Amino acid sequence: MTEITAPQLPRLRHPEKAHRPDQAQPKKPDWIRVKAPVSEGYKRTRDIMQEHRLLTVCEEAGCPNVGECWSQGHATMMIMGEICTRGCTFCNVSTGRPNELDVFEPGRVAHAVQKLGLNHVVITSVDRDDLDDGGAEHFAQTIRAIRHRSPDSTIEVLTPDFLKSRPGSLEMVVEARPDVFNHNLETVPGLYPTVRPGARYFHSLRLLQRVKELDPSMFTKSGIMVGLGEDRQGVLQVMDDMRAADVDFMTIGQYLQPSPKHHRVDRFVAPDEFANYEKSAYGKGFLMVSATPLTRSSYHAGDDFAQLRAARLAKLGLA
């Protein structure tokens, strides 16, 4: 198989990493390799994104699943620009001072969702610490625009942590009623200072818990990467923390190093370890778990949402 590699990026894409020493990028094992994107479905999705001048996290973050997902017409829209105000050491999204919000973007996203015929759409964004509400109202407007054009589509949001936002920002997003509220913890708390220095583990955990307090019927979702230097006990503790916050759906995927300036890969976690994590997570009460080397937050999100909804109905004895 042909391995997808991220395109060569401008040196100024990650100014906060420019002076970091290079980290060796180990050769990927066979279970990480994927096919290059060449299908007609991939090209159609790419063309629709370009036509509507939309960004996707699939491209910006160098996701290894882009060929598979786009060939099926699935893409994770990234709103509020491609420049993030944070500088997480694992992330391939550009860091810097973002541009002004595009007030017409929610409508363009909704049009693209309709044109792609998406049954389930995932909306994410960069961190926008420069905005008073962290971009919460822009999320809400995008949700409402999609509901207007595609009322039968289910909507999943993958939001920032709103750490520096004014009170009530999270409530704006929840009141717009997405079907799934996702916010990733990304890693174990002990690695936050080096992996996610601009964030706070317990703030992110409390954010997920607060969503359930605001709307107990809303599905919540969160994910972490492994291979950053965590140990098994740390991952199991994150599972317990998520369940204490009543998170419904957990994702676990292999961290892949975007460039020599990014956080190093500590190790490649074998598929059988992922299977063991999945078994443990289900044992702790999650309604849905996706734990594979190539799992990402929105990988197979539509199919997973259907299973998530069925699992809740079964738990309530309504299936």
Low-confidence stretches: 1-10
What is the beta-strand fraction?
Answer: 5-15%
Number of strands: 10
Largest sheet: 8 strands, mixed
**How many helical elements?**
11
Helix and strand element order: HEHHEEEHEHEHEHHEHEHEH
Q: Order of strands in the sheet with the most strands? A: 1-2-5-6-7-8-9-10
For the termini, the CA-CA separation is: 41 Å
Task: Look at the helices and sheets and give the structural class.
Answer: alpha/beta
Over the alpha carbons, how many angstroms does the gyration radius reach? 18 Å
Tell me the overall shape: globular
Mean pLDDT: 87
Helix content: 25-40%
List the helices and strands and how they pair.
Blueprint: H1 40-51, E1 55-56, H2 57-60, H3 66-71, E2 76-79, E3 83-84, E4 94-95, H4 105-116, E5 120-125, H5 136-149, E6 154-158, H6 169-175, E7 180-182, H7 192-195, H8 201-214, E8 219-226, H9 232-244, E9 249-254, H10 271-283, E10 288-291, H11 301-315
Parallel strand pairs: 2-5, 3-4, 5-6, 6-7, 7-8, 8-9, 9-10
Antiparallel strand pairs: 1-2
